[in-house]
Amino acid sequence: MGLLDILLGRTKPVAPDLDRLFALPSAAITLEAGAGFTPTGTGAVCFATVEGGAFTQAHREVQALLDADTDRTGEPVELRRDEYGYSWLVSRRAPDQLTDLVNDLHAVNSAMEANGFGPQLLCSVAGFRDEGGRRLALVYLYKRGTFYPMCPLPGRQKRDNALELQLAALLKNDLRIEEDLSRWFPVWGAPGTED
Hints:
The chain is of the alpha+beta class.
């Protein structure tokens, strides 16, 4: 970054660091001990929808890689499009297989990057729930290399902001939490956060 960039207030974008996803299992221990949230076993990678043969081939490769895992319990990897036009590659594991789920999320992101689709990657999500039925999505922002909690409330498009702030404070030693609250985007209907 040059002097002119500093004077004009321009900043260099943070390079994605997919290895930060591997901090999720230790964060899950903190979540369970401090707030009673446990993994649901569902996670997903969100990306801007891309059309074309190269993307279709990359998607097939990723899906075949994940579906080939002989330890997979549950449904095969699923490609889903949401009402906003984004695509989600959804992985489901047993709730006690968070490490395997994180490996799935990392593999999807890495394969998309390797096939030239890194700019289309938006976020990865891992779902959690407590005994009272409250839902939590730990969202990893691909382009920022940070996490934030999103706690949807029952009903359409409402969030528990106080709980989100509480959980962010709880997780600050386990995950790199996004400091800019305006970037805590709602991911309505994200896999793992539905009722």
